[in-house]
Specification:
Layout: E1 3-5, H1 7-21, E2 30-35, E3 38-43, H2 45-48, H3 52-66, E4 69-71
Helix pairs in contact: 1-3
């Protein structure tokens, strides 16, 4: 069962998890948007193109947090 969470709180958790991989990732522009899968973390093309390592971390964290959290309706 997943827990309801606000977009702002989920983004904060997501950023903290990114920082645990590499402190420079914490400054990356990330947005949490509703999607068919519940929600999706998106970032700018510049950061996605920066390297597969960054994109891999986003996908990994997204998969972990999707199993725990779902967006609360505002």
């Amino acid at each position: 069962m997943t827990k309801k969470i606000s977009n702002t709180d989920l983004l904060w958790i997501f950023r903290e998890r990114m920082a645990s991989f590499d402190g420079r990732f914490k400054a990356a522009p990330i947005a949490i948007l509703p999607s068919e899968n519940g929600w999706e973390a998106v970032t700018s093309h510049r950061y996605r193109a920066a390297g597969p390592r960054f994109a891999k971390h986003i996908e990994q964290i997204q998969a972990e947090l999707r199993a725990i959290y779902r967006l609360a309706r505002d």
